[in-house]
Fold this sequence. Notes:
The protein has 2 helices and 13 strands. By secondary structure, it is mainly beta. It is globular and about 45 Å long.
Amino acid sequence: MRTSTTVLLLLTVVVLAPSVSATHVSGNAGQHIAGSAVQQACEETDEYDVIELEAENYDGSDSDQSESPFEVVADETASGGEYVRAPNATADRYLSSPTRSDAFENNSISYTFDTSVEDEYVVWGRTVAPNGTSDSFWVAVDDGEPSRWFVPQSTEWEWRRVNVTTILGADENVTYNRTLVTTPLAPGEHTLHLGVREAETRLDTLVVTNDPDCVPASDD
Ligand SMILES: [Ca+2]
């Protein structure tokens, strides 16, 4: 005969409220989002900022977009359900070698974010760059000159770090020297500018961080 023993386990469930970091700025500016996929991969600490920006929430995106060279596209595989691209219809707004001029300002969108420490920051983007004529943006921080960001090609969303690309060799021997960009930033408000280079290059999310070991990841 089997003796049935009922063991009552009293489980004390401690629900730890997520450590919600300060949201430094309002409106469409960068959010320090607790519990997001990015935060799981890159932990925000007193030492490190991890600032996540939805590309579609650029400054002024909730107002008149008719002048923007970028358009917001719905995509269920994108974070927040949307991404931005310069459509082929605006391919003539391609900037070949811009400086900080009216042409750049008129053909770029911007993102405001706050940093909390003085350090070298890097920028990551969740991108699709489907082919060799749709794989680049211009990126500038604050009043800096634009850097040509050649995005490594992919047809699925991939996290890519902003670089300055030098083309080495020619034709079939072409290789690329992608120098990853770091930007020294003081604590406070900053602006990241994204300019049109090649149409149909897609950007879903941006991450600005001073954690050199942070490699963003997504559940996809
Ligand atoms: Ca997005």
